[in-house]
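Worked Example 4.2. Consider the chain below.
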Amino acid sequence: MKKLALIAVSALFLAGCSKEKALEMRLDNQTWSIAKYEFQLSNNGVVDPGQSVSIENAGTVDLKKGGTGTFKLTANGSTDSYTITSWTTGEDVVNMDLTDDATKGKSSWKFTVSGNEKKKQVWVREVTQGTFLFKTTLTLTR
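Applying the procedure from the previous section yields the following C-alpha cells:
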C-alpha cells in the first residue's frame, strides 16, 4: 500500500511540473555534447548552398547551477569559446547571455527547444536581418 501511495504522489508531482521547470531540471548542472551543429543562411527564403554547414561532434554546452557556464563550438578546425554569464529557461526556450572569450564581445542568444528529452535536445536559433535568415541548429546529447 505504501508503494502505491508513493507512486501516486510521484505521478502527481511529475504531472504538475511545468514544461519550463522540466527543461530547467534537465539542463541545470549538466554538460551536453554538441553532437551536430548545422548552419544555414537564406535570402528571401532561398538557402545559399555555399552558406550551409553541418558538423558532427562540434563542442560542448556546460550549464552550471546558478545560471552560468561555458559554450565551446568547434567548426572548420577552430574553436569559438564563450563564457555564459547567465542562462534561463522558458517554456521550450533557453536564453543565454554570453561573452566571447577571445574578443570579450557580449551577446544574447535565444534558442527554441524541440525534443526536450533526458538524453537529447534540439535547439534552434534564428536571426533575421533584412531579407536574410541565419539559422543555427544544435543537436545536444549526453
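The domain at 19-141 is CATH 2.40.160 (Porin). The helical segments are 2-16, 19-27. Compare this with Example 4.1 before moving on.
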